[in-house]
Amino acid sequence: MHLAYPAVLAVLLFCVGLYGVLARRNAILVLMSVELMLNAVNLNLVAFDVWLRDRLHSGQALTLFTIAIAAAEIGIGLAIVLAVYRNRGTSAVDDLRDTAERPDGGDDDDGDDDGTEGAALDEPESAPDEASPKPQTSPKSQKAEATA
After folding, report:
1. Global confidence as pTM
2. Cβ-count burial of 46 within 10 angstroms (0-12 exposed, 13-18 middle, 19+ buried)?
């Protein structure tokens, strides 16, 4: 058997997986695309093992190792995706960018490092003034207003 056939198939599988990782927004589809890429690597390992006629079958042994690592990766990945879906209500990768740390390193909204989130703990929260509601602004418009 020629080595070119499984190598071309592996390249096609890897390219489809790479496209899926770069273009998809759903986290589960991204995980499936990573699995396609790992299967392309497994196909190359087995094809070169057969082509080289290795007596130790090291390509097949590495393939089994890769399958075990991929199974662990998909289990942990799906657990993370399910936890994020339960908390956020979506599994879109673009919507998860706000979970990253801010560039300034702070997590609270008021800017001071006392561990409180804006208001003091003993003050009761006041109800919003319903006579003059403030319009909701997006973070992009707030950034544009800050730079203007």
Report:
1. 0.63
2. middle
